[in-house]
Specification:
Shape of chain A: elongated
Shape of chain B: globular
Oligomer: heterodimer
Strand order of the largest sheet of chain B: 6-7-8-3-9-10
Structural class of chain B: alpha/beta
Distance between the termini of chain B: 27 Å
Number of helices of chain B: 7
Largest sheet of chain A: 4 strands, antiparallel
Number of strands of chain B: 10
Chain lengths: 291, 226
Amino acid sequence: MRLKYVLNEVLVGLWRNVTMTVAMIITMSVSLTMLGASVLLYMQVDQMKNFYYGEIEVSIFLRDDVTDAQKSAIDQAIANNALTESRQYESKQDAFKKFQVIWRDSPDFIKSVTPDSLPESYRVKLKDPEQYGAFADQMRGMQGIQDIVDQRELLKKVFDIFNSIQLMALVVAGVMALAALLLVGNTIQVAAYSKRREVAVMKLVGASNWFIQAPFVLEAVAAGLVGAILGFVFLFISKVVLLDGRLQALTNVLTPIPNGNVWLMLPLLAGVGALVSAVTAWVTLRFYLRV
Amino acid sequence: MIQLENVTKTYPKASRPSLDNVSVGIEKGEFVFFIGPSGSGKSTIIKLLLHEVSPSNGKVVVNAKDVTTLRSWKIPHFRRSIGCVFQDFRLLPNRTAYENVAFALEVIGKTKAVARRVVPEVLELVGLGGKEHRYPHELSGGEQQRVAVARAFVNRPLILLADEPTGNLDPDTSIEIMRLLDRINRTGTTVVMVTHDSNIVNQMRRRVIEIESGRIVRDQARGVYG
């Protein structure tokens, strides 16, 4: 009977103040959508880093006038460097073959280039790609090196863009969350006011605090959960429509977002939505239902 | 049953204490009137006994429990041993007499089956047999107060506190409510009543404690309003 009473109170409470409930659910769902997008993006960037950084090489381009002695010195230095995982020599011919593959759609451009105009290079894989700076510093002094290029520098720019998008989503999530919290607090105040007689009697006859507070807290949790589910649906739809549909070209550059990750957002959003609502409601009640 | 030991209560921002070093003991089964002019501090005593407020100084012991040191989460359970009646009845307007009384049972975890057994019994006791399904607005003031008494008593508390229970009632109805409280007192329940209804005090001839400006100025075993 107690459970039935509490659940009934929750439904009545949500319905009594239905416009506020709707506002609460909408802000909550927008906030949680942004949170979910932000977390997904974070996971995505992480995954892309793993994917691309695994492939990443440091290229050491050699000068045109490099001598054989210098070349073998460089080769030795790379081989003996503690940071090196593997190295590969790329001759002018190898470079030209690669060049032909990369630019196969522009035969005119290929014709204008000869193997001789391309530099020889060493392609070095580092044990830890983050150590690029140290590695470059150690190599830079050597004779016969034209340039040391880290592909990471290029990727970093891409990741920076993702990171700032993620940050923006997080900021929006935070602002909306604040609005959602205020709405939850307000809804609970209104609910507590409209039930003040019942609450007064309950306190008088010694109903336990949880019993008095549970309907209010659960009311907020229910709204939070509905908001979370809506947020998840938004997120899933945007993923399917935008990334899998219209922006598919972009998705090919990015690594694809696995649906598993998106599903993972459901418990996350539900958990965050429910917990945040519950805590807000409870804190509000501490002020409005002094025992 | 009830002990106030050197109790002082000063509300924040008040220039003088509502209760000033008050000591009083009430035995089990007693019927006690607290009388005095408005603002003398008599209602503060009810609030202290319910632990709605804590004393600024001194000790309040109810049912052998030191209320002053009672943990806040234990207060609800503590209140189940105290029934309470007020001048304004405090009934739920959208519930019938039966439902008002049953509500008090259900919110402290009693089952509907218990309510079905106990509530008609207590409504009969307060003289509302046959009016169980009336709403408060369909009842007279005296009848509403009977519902409130039934609600306070349904849990068989050891103590019944009554804060001006006849304040809104005409003299005849007041007498009826007093007879009811007297009957409850005879079941062994300690009754503490705050009032300034001299008629009633003079008729009942029970212990009278008079308070003025927060101090006890009289404590008489079979007193009158004076």
